[in-house]
Amino acid sequence: MVTGTRLGIGVLLAALLGAPAVLPPFYVYLLALILVTGLLATSLNLVLGFGGMYQFHHGVFYGIGAYTLAIAITKWNGPAWMGMVAGPLAAAGAGLLMGLVCVRLERLYFGMLQLSLGSFVWIVALRWYPVTGGDNGLHGIPLPPELHPLDSAYRFILITVAASLLVLWAVVRSPFGLTLQAIRDNPQRCSVVGIPVRAHQLVAMVLAAFFAGVAGTLYVVLERSVFPNMLFWVLSLEILVMCLLGGWFTFFGPLLGAALVVALRVFVGRHTEYWTLILGVLLILLIFFLPEGILGTLGARRAQNPRVPVPQPTHAGDAHG
Amino acid sequence: MDPVAVLGQILVGLSRAMILFIVAAGLSLVLGVLRVPNVFHGSLYMVGAFVAWTVAEAMGGHPARLWPALVAAPLVTAAVGLVVERTLLCRLYQREHLMLILFTFGVMLILNDLVKLSWGPTYRSLVPPEALQGSVSVLGVALPRYNLVLLLVGPLVATALWLFAHRTRIGKIARAAATDREMVAVLGIDVGRVFAVAFGVGCSLAGLGGALVAPTTSITLGMDHTLLIESFLIVIIGGLGNLWGALVGSLLFGVAHSVGLLIWPQFAIAFPYAITAGVLLLRPQGLLRSVW
Amino acid sequence: MHTRRSVVLAILGMVAVSVAQAGPSFRFERNIKVGIVDTYSGPPAVFGNDALNGFRLALEEINREGVHGARIEFVTRDEKFSPEIGLSMARELVLQERVDLLVGTINSATALAISAFAREQRVPFLVWISKSEQITGAKGHRYVFSTSENTAMAGKALAYALARQGYSRFWIGAEDYEYGHAVTNSFWRFMKRAKPEATLLGQTWWRTGEPDLVPYLTQILQARPEAAFFGTGGAGMANVLRTMRVIGFAERVPSAIHTAIDVTVLRPLGAAAPEGVWGTTDYLFYYPETPANREFVRRFQAAYRDPPGFPAFHGYITAQFIAEAYRKARSLDRERFIEALEGLRIRTPVGEVEMRACDHQAALPLFFGRTRRDPQFPFLVAGDLVTIPAREAMPTCEDIQRARARGR
Fold first, then answer.
1. Which residue of B has its CA nearest to A310?
2. Which of A247, A305, C245, C361 is 20 to 30 A distant from C260 in Cα terms?
3. pLDDT digit string (tens) for A13-24?
4. Rounded mean pLDDT of chain B?
5. Regarding the domain delimited by C32-149+290-363, which CATH topology (the fold level of the hierarchy) does it fall under?
6. All residues at 6 or more sequence positions from C61 whose CB lies less than 8 Å from its CB, including other chains
7. C57-84: pLDDT as tens digits
8. In CATH, what class is C152-288+366-393?
9. Which pLDDT score is estimated for C17?
10. pLDDT band for position B6 (50/70/90)?
């Protein structure tokens, strides 16, 4: 990373740390929500943008992480920190299971199989009233008193998200990450060369699921509730939209996308109840005019040298790569 | 378990399966021929229900008010689909599937809000005509008359679709284009026109499904959400683009749920999803042959 | 001479008396802001809109007179029957819009979620449609109040009524959410008290707002219970009633549902609603025919065309409670408001209603009846009506203390 960028990020972090002192509580809450959603979107992008996999139901891991923490505290009466570790681990476990089943398939089939397995998890959460609270979810989840005030919760979320993003950044830049991107661009060539394609994809899925689980537990810290909607397919598509909006070949694109969508929901939603219509229009404009997403297009314009090549378009022709 | 109870539940499940089949068949057609996973298919189902309500209301208490509704709804949804396809969607066929999904998702968001704008947020009720109300005793089981109607309409639609796909020229070309579109283009046939027809038919089926379900349920915003995921799953387990597969999948779904209520009421609604997961684990390409 | 002096004295005397009576002239320095979270889309929207209309009708008179010179203003937010959205709306109203108090909602789970939030933020929260008894019972606290009847009252009324009819083999069908569980638990709890030999043949639970209820209801018919109880509310009530009519359920199996006889439920269904269903509600626009009730109905229909249902009645008395409490408190401070509201009695279209201090629950009577057609109206109404006074229907203060202690 260029020193200038590193400095910029440091300044941003410092500013964010100090935010509760200057901003009214509602904006602190909003920032925390953006951070959580941004982590979720970035974790998806590990497999989507950098891995080229059609992860259509990423929300499952988010929900599993959140519900594990919630159930650990309310039903098993465990300490909060145990739940916060169990959440991401459970999500990673689910990612492993789902990955073992799905990575045999390509592209659209991969996505659709994930969608069906994920929907099954959603249904179980919806019907298992005694454990998951069914349709209502669980709320008023008691957390350690240190995390009760909004400012402390915010700082905890900020530090955790920053640390997670750091790890994800390292993964993307590591030899593993570069290999993953090569697999995204041309899986046949990679496997001919001797790279274990499926193994790489599986590891990527587990990592992505782990950090989605982290995002889920952070959501519980912020809202003190869990809802079955977290496991519903519409949320998963929304996260996909965030990645695309911000730029799915860039690292910070999903974070930007998350900020935009959350801001849209809150600020536009205040003036009109039809903010989803505006989101839909934005999305269509994006697909036609900014297919690289916002950061992606900016990055392409700034750098004179050719970008990472666009993956072979699987146009309505080939489902098998 | 009481065999009469089981039979009753099977019959009820079958009638629900008919609606699922009609909607899933439309989705399968679009997915098979155009290779577009149409996320706004569910919204068209909802539009179909609302349009049916509007037409039936306009006819006051007329006993035959359901028929114009059943004709108007598919026409409206076909028109909406065609407008979207001809203006925007056709430019995206060369793009990745991901873009198609996101595009149709965007259209879904827009359509849903337009429905809210047009009909408002309150729910509507479509009372079926007198002749179709009440229940009939079939082999000791009390089956609503309207469900009997659905049991007849389903196979009719299936037959019509089969005739379309196998006996009409455009249907045969569509099937060919599904398997090998380059070849069809090379033969000098306007692939774009074929796609438009297929898309229009698919969208009209969604509207028809919505119109048929309207008398049995609250016509409201959000009625499309679970139906869409169910349709997708049915299409996947049946085999992409395979109409018989859509029928098999729908039957599995509908009957698994209603019979499941006798076995394990609490989790009956999970049975179809569990079956889907099971099928896909064993045969990821679907039960019957996929077109691609 | 004498006449002029006596006139001056008289005037002085009158001035002295009026000065003594007036006391310090007191005015609020700003208007009162109320934040309303409710469902305004989907099937439950009829209830939310009804409540808002009742609230607005009351505000017309209240704001004409003023509350110590201030008006009561309100903002609304749509929770779309989702506790997740409702909670974030409540948060926005308190932190961003800076409302003085919160009012809402129809979804009992949302009400509980907002209640927890209100307690944390120390903001008064008045619940006007949600009925879970946990709201003022086991999960009640200083900052939450209810102007709606609750599932403890409804369950008790329906259980005793059905026990009196002689049924003892039941089936329960309900929606799988907070209200469904609350009303069902309450019904069965009181049924066992009223008739220890009563048996539950089985239960069927479905998703809230499940559109196709035919397989569920046919399955219940196969089981042939003597009577059925349905724990369904805002989202699913319409579907249950409609499906019951389509398959002729009520003719085969006597059924009881709380709020089934209310006009907010029956009016949108029109001819699609079934006859012969037993139900309870705490307000009917045609019963009792007191002058106060008639006047309320007349004014409501003049403003909103349709007759008021129970949500409109609750909305109306909520506004009255708020205004009277602020008048009594003479302060915009939230704690003073709460103290003034506890034990407050107001005059409503159905008589005097008290906000009970021990649990913050408004003491409302219940009406029990059966749906039937009436040529006067394009929708069904209730017949065979029986009134259950508040003190018979409500749990005692000791019951509440015990429930809260157990919950802790």
1. B96
2. C361
3. 888 888 888 888
4. 88
5. Rossmann fold (3.40.50)
6. none
7. 999 999 999 999 999 999 999 888 888 8
8. alpha beta
9. 56
10. confident
CATH architecture of B3-282: Orthogonal Bundle (1.10)
pLDDT at B175 over 90: no
What tokens appear for C367 in the block?
A: 């009406």
Range A180-203 average pLDDT? 90
**pLDDT over 80 at A320, yes or no:** no
8 Å CB contact between C278 and C260: yes
**Residues of chain B in Cβ contact (below 8 Å) with chain C:** 2, 4-5, 8-9, 12-13, 15-16, 116, 121-123, 125, 127-128, 133-135, 141-144, 146-147, 213, 216-218, 220-223, 257-258, 261-262, 265-266, 269
> Which residue of C lies nearest to B2 if distances are taken between CA atoms?
C222
Write down the pLDDT at residue B267: 82
C408: pLDDT confidence band, cut at 50, 70 and 90?
low
Residue extents of the structural domains in chain B: 3-282
pLDDT(C18) > 60: no
C152-288+366-393 shares the fold of C32-149+290-363: yes
Q: Do B249 and B291 meet the contact criterion of CB atoms below 8 Å apart?
A: no
Q: How far is C96 from chain A (nearest CA, A)?
A: 6
Chain B nearest C-alpha distance from A252 (Å): 20
Do β-strands C278-281 and C227-231 pair in parallel, antiparallel, or remain unpaired? Answer: unpaired
| Alpha-carbon gap: B78 to the closest alpha carbon of chain C (Å) | 24
Q: How is chain C split into domains, by residue range? A: 32-149+290-363, 152-288+366-393
Residues of B in contact with A281 (CB under 8 A): 106, 110
Residue in B4, B220, B261 nearest the CB of C43 = B220
Measure CA B189 to chain center. Answer: 29
Q: Of A270-284, B275-289, C120-134, C234-248, where does the model show the most confidence? A: C120-134
Q: Is the pLDDT assigned to residue B151 strictly greater than 60?
A: yes
Mean pLDDT, residues B190-204: 91
Asked whether the beta carbons of residue C216 and residue B261 sit closer than 8 angstroms, the reply is: yes
Amino acid at C352: E
pLDDT at C3: 66
Burial of B83 (0-12, 13-18, 19+ CB in 10 A): exposed
User: In whole angstroms, how far apart are CA B99 and each of A284, B95, B109, C115?
Assistant: 10, 6, 15, 43
Give the model's pLDDT for residue B1: 66
Rg (CA), chain B: 19
Beta strands B141-144 and C345-348, pairing class: unpaired
Residues of A in contact with C176 (CB under 8 A): 126-127, 129, 134-135
pLDDT of residue A317: 39
Please say if the pLDDT value at position C386 is more than 50. yes
Interface of C with A in 77-96 (CB under 8 A): 78, 82-84, 87-88, 91-92, 95-96
Q: Which of residues 174-203 of A touch B (CB under 8 A)?
A: none
**Chain B residues touching residue A291 (CB < 8 angstroms):** 95, 99
Token pair of A286 as six digits = 């994006």
pLDDT: is A37 or A315 the higher one?
Answer: A37
Q: Which two tokens stand for residue C283?
A: 């307000």
Q: Does A136 touch chain B (CB under 8 A)?
A: no
Quick check: C292 and C350 in contact, CB under 8 A? Answer: yes
- At residue C15, the pLDDT reads 58
